[in-house]
Amino acid sequence: MSWTLDTRFNNVYVYVYDSSESSRPSGLGVDYDVESVGLLEERLEERSEESIFQQLKAFAERSRNSSLLSVVSPTDSLYDISDSLDDYTDVDSDDYMNDDMEYEMISSTSVAETPCPRHTETNSTANNTRLDFTSITALRHEERKKSHKWSSEDRLLLSCLYRWFDSSTDTTAIPRIFNTLTSLNLKYSTIRRQFEDSMVLFGPDAYPELRIFYSAFDDPRYEDILAMISSEAKKLKIHLPRRLGDVDFGPAFGKARRARSKRTRERYNDLVRRAQLLAAQTSRSLSQRSTAFGGCLLASQDVTDQFVVADENAKSIQRIRRSRYETFTPNMYLAFRIWVDGENWTIYNPNDGFISARFAELGGLHDEDAPVMCPRLLKSHIHQHLHPTGGPSPFVSVFVNLLQTMAKYRTPNTRIAVIDLAHHSLSAGDKKFHVRDKLADLRSNHNLMQWTRYKGFFEFLLWGDIPPAAILHVTSWSDLTRLASTDPDVAHILSLPIFERLNTSSRIAKHIARKALALDDNTARSIGVLARAFGLDNPTVKSRHVADFVATFIEGWSIRSSSRLSNNKATILNALAVSFAAGLNRPETPFDPKAAFVDGVIRAWTL
Questions:
Q1: pTM higher than 0.85 for the full model?
Q2: Is 165 found in the same domain as 45?
Q3: Phi-psi region for residue 455, left (φ > 0), alpha (ψ -120 to 50) or beta?
Q4: pLDDT tens digits for range 1-29
Q5: Do 358 and 429 share a structural domain?
Q6: Which residue range forms the structural domain that includes residue 413?
Q7: For an engineered disulfide with 531, which of 27, 110, 496, 536 has Cβ 3.0 to 4.6 Å away?
Q8: Is 326 within the bounds of a domain?
Q9: Rounded to an integer, what distance in angstroms lies between the CA atom of residue 223 and that of residue 229?
Q10: 122-179, pLDDT tens digit by residue?
Q11: Does residue 493 contact residue 557 with C-beta atoms inside 8 Å?
Q12: Cα angle for residues 97, 198, 213 (degrees, 5° grid)
């Protein structure tokens, strides 16, 4: 039994029928190459009927081959054929088309005369409704529902759902949760197809959102979104249990790259190029250079320096609504403070930690000094801190970029503190402030700080002090120098002479980038040795701290992928993680340092 399939290009209909049928629709026609249907679909833009007709006719004239494309003048009214495939023209719909199908443009006369049967197993056309082209209302009423355009946030949410939740007992559970969280009303099969038959098929190179699968399965950054999903499922009385272990798609992950179908391979290449182009455009629009770091979109520049960091990972997954997506500032777990004893107003001693210059003068920090008590005074303090002639500041400043931190002081008596920025003593709402947000407020609402281009994306201000419990380790420039003198691999990667020779972080980063450092076994081991030098073998250190260190080091020192990683990334990364763990040399740990290393690498790269 023959069957039919239909879809629409704007207001011109395409009739798809079984090529084995001997009978074909009548009408004036020209030959049309079915292999070019994807190109045809891309070229059809929102235009008048007459322009669409002329475009189709010209395209068909250039594509004479085997199948019939019947085109009639748009001055004739068209028949609405069917709305049976509401989601057929999805972004990946051409991957589900049968290559044996042929496409035919039909008119109001040819539809009535065609002998091709419909899905109803009859030749009846009683359901066809003539469109009134004189009525805009009628046209809107007859127009089929627009297909959903999948956004990056949609795919991130799908990736999160399918990685951490098991829907094997109820295949509708994840689609129902997805529709609830996004306020959409998509068909369940459409949602499953998007992930299983499109995202998994084309893999993370085509859909960067899938790189979430490379992070550690127990990554704490995702706990908030996972708890929210579980809560939503409980409210809806949906059985959606958490997975106990990671899901492995095996060779199915990105197998479109080696598909036998030429069209599928071409589609894969198009998606990869599009992902790369989008990443490049995003980078150019933000800064001179870009890379991934810490699960957020970051940028930092001072009067002479400019840094930008971009990522599509972790906590950009939010409870999203179609009307808008909330902006999000992620938690950073690792920060650094550099100083020289006797040359900084902020005071440090091992027993009390860091005390800001203002409170050191006042004899210490008191509860009544909390900035929440006087918001207007807080803005004045921030302006004073950021101004070069502001005097003693009530804040202690830290940075989340290691290279930018090390570029500030380069003398033998320079010291560097490694700080747990997520420590409970620093997590109160009136304790930690992101300079980016405060600068934006000062500029837009108070017309202050207009004299500088500084953005403050890497800088955090901590009110009053940093207690010793939040300080993971303190090292010195001389300690790093001694380490480099005893380990040639560390010396080559750390590049201390470049820091000592140049005076700005942008120039330092540029010169280090010229060394073209690649991630191999020696590099991975050296990063582990440096992590140990920065105190990350401390028992209080968590997986997130190690991952942050790996990410900021790979980003700052422009360490790139080696040729070994071009094929089997997962296997090679695991092997490199073993070298990193050997360099870190932390035998007893509540977490797997190898997984933390892989997580940091993934966050720093666009794999």
A1: no
A2: no
A3: alpha
A4: 333 334 444 334 444 333 444 444 433 33
A5: yes
A6: 331-476
A7: 536
A8: no
A9: 10
A10: 444 444 445 454 555 555 554 556 678 888 888 888 888 988 998 888 889 999 988 8
A11: yes
A12: 170
